[in-house]
Amino acid sequence: MAEKFYITTPIYYPSDKLHIGHTYCTVAADAMARYKRLTGCDVMFLTGTDEHGQKIENKAREAGKTPKEFLDGIVCGEKGVLDLWKLMNISNDRFIRTTDDYHVAAIQRIFKKMYEKGDIYKGAYKGKYCTPCESFWTESQLVDGKCPDCGREVHDAEEEAYFFRLSKYADRVQHLLEDTDFLQPRSRVNEMVNNFIKPGLEDLCVSRTSFSWGIPVDFDPGHVVYVWVDALFNYTTALGFMNDTYHDYDKYWPADVHFVGKEIVRFHSIIWPAMLMSMEMPLPKHVYGHGWLVIDGGKMSKSKGNVVDPYALAEMFGVDALRFFLLRTFPFGTDGNFSNELLINTINIDLANKLGNLVSRTTGMVEKYFGGTLPTEREDDKLDCDLKTLACTLRDRYEAEMEKFQFQNALEEIFKVIDRANKYIDETTPWALGKDETKRVRLATVLYNLLETVRICTTLLLPFMPDTCGKIFDKIGACDGCRTWEKANVWGSLRSDATVQKGENLFPRVDSEAALATLEAMHEAQKKAALPAIALEPYVEEKVDFDTFMKCDLRAVKIKDCKAVKKSDKLLQFTLDDGSGTDRTILSGIHHWYEPEDLIGKTAIAILNLPPRKMMGIESCGMLISAVHTEKGEEKLKLMLIDDSVPAGAKLC
Ligand code: MSP
Q: Which residues share a beta bridge with 295?
């Protein structure tokens, strides 16, 4: 019977559109799931959405929708979560929404079971609460008085609540972390033990009464289950634990690995095993805490306007190129600095120059010299053995890295072979062999060796670029039987009478300058969209006494003439009737917003008793009054124009 493999991603919080950071983890889990299927495992790959909590309730209210309507749009709507996973070719076997009825009922049963066992009890909670993270914190856990996860303000909160006896499981969890390989990479263990377990694990507040968008505690109305208890058990309810919708729990539980981002390692490596211990359920084999994709060293966030949109990148560069880039460029366990330059370089160097070239040169020469089908005779030499040995032993090196979730290293191993094959072309000079009729057998040997190397590399690249690999297999005429894991370390699997076709270029080189300019323009538009709709000038706190204010001589003025001041981009020169019988000149820096001819004849407001001031050699006697504000980062100005029936010189008071 095939070995089972159960892998999960975190279930996503659909309060906003997902970005490249979320895509990163899901693509990694997908590559792992595809790899395990390739090796013959019976895989269950789960992802989904975590749909309860105050933040969702608030967001839905802001959008004028019910929470469920809001969620349906963002999960199932256009360019929602499901659309993104479809686009990214994610091969999940199941998708859970924590609002699914079977999950809700199962969570109520689980909560009750822990309550009846005495591991959940009723108390009163006082603490610091971070609304965006849905997390209560103790004073000592705060960083500079703020939420240690997101750095935002926390507030005092107190409510009657249920508690989970986390403290009871502290020793067992510490042992699990320190003495087993449960939590990976190993570097995350110290952080958990030193920051959370050693200072003393307090019991965990697991119900809320301050909002209602959650799973009700069915034996105590008014309480809803803490969103993390609801969320973590998804990994088991989606298999059918405590429900009848699915029947896969016995087959797939415990999970072989949960992939999670580093900030939620605490929930997965402390709270999750403790709750499973309470439920007397087997523990997952591994939790892998991966790093973040960061921008300029910092987290992506909508408010910074630096969120990278996977749709835009996939459209510009292709889904497989994006999948490949994410796993080839960054080590999975640590943070990776995302940049468009890096993405374009990876595509141009690894995919266009190395892999793309190898495939097109090889298939092109089989077409050119043998009409797409090689003769069967072969003739080996030392160079061939080097390449063959390297290619045939690749699977073992690749497997060792994949088993440790080291995608970058696994890809590096493949590219060593691709580099070797490109070098083999330069060494064997098939174009020279092609000119000499007596070297036909040697030429066929060289090309066959290249085709075999491409076949092996393509098999191992399948988890990363499923569509592209299918195309490469078709180009080299690989039959189904030689696209397999079993044949990935067996030389000579490709039939020699296979039909080879060069076909279209797999990875056209990206015009770096043009692509960067397009991405930069998109980024600017996004930054602008993230700016506040309206920003006002700061209010002046200092008071002006009434008598001083009354000294300002504000009057209605008629604009008799208006023209641009020579050599100035900004200044307009106004000739004004201020009612005194003598024309008044005022300069105003408003040319950016008005053409002079549009203002002639209008009635404006001016302050007249300012000391005269010379600008560009012209004396300005007073100031016209305008209203200013900033809209989406752009300064806006409106000259204060008033009813034309107001006579020139009328005093404003
Ligand atoms: N709902 C919880 C998970 C519950 S699992 C029982 C949650 N959701 S989330 O949508 O906020 O985040 C989901 C995952 O995306 C987390 O693992 C998080 O680390 C990951 N990422 C979010 N931004 C990221 C990057 N910039 N880079 C890499 N991963 C990041 O947490």
A: 298
- Which residue among 531, 555, 581 closes a domain? 531
pLDDT of residue 571: 96
Q: Are residues 508 and 592 in the same domain?
A: no
Give the residue-averaged pLDDT of 184-208: 94
Instruction: Give residue 602's pLDDT.
Output: 96
Distance 214 CA to ligand 1 centre (A): 20
Beta strand pairing status for 207-208 and 224-225? antiparallel
Beta strands in 463-549 (DSSP E): 534-535
- Calculate ∠ Cα 19-73-291, nearest 5°: 20
Question: Residue 581's domain spans which residues?
Answer: 546-642
Asked if residue 261 has its Cβ within 6 Å of ligand 1, the reply is yes
CB atoms within 10 A of CB 473: 20
Residue from 2, 36, 46 nearest 254 by CA:
46
In a domain, 425, yes or no: yes
For the entire predicted model, the pTM comes to: 0.83
**Hey, what are 367's tokens?**
């077409």
Confidence band, pLDDT 50/70/90 cuts, at residue 124: confident
Instruction: Report which of 213, 228, 207 is spatially closest to residue 67, judged by C-alpha positions.
Output: 213
On whether residue 313 sits in a domain, the answer given is no
DSSP state of 579: S
Q: Is 264 in the pocket of ligand 1 (CB under 6 A)?
A: yes
Of residues 11, 75, 9, 50, the one with CA closest to residue 226: 50
How many angstroms separate the CA atoms of 137 and 109, rounded?
27
Q: What are phi and psi of 568, to 5 degrees?
A: -125, 135
CA of 14, closest atom in ligand 1 = 10
Domains of the chain: total:
2
Gyration radius of the chain's alpha carbons: 34
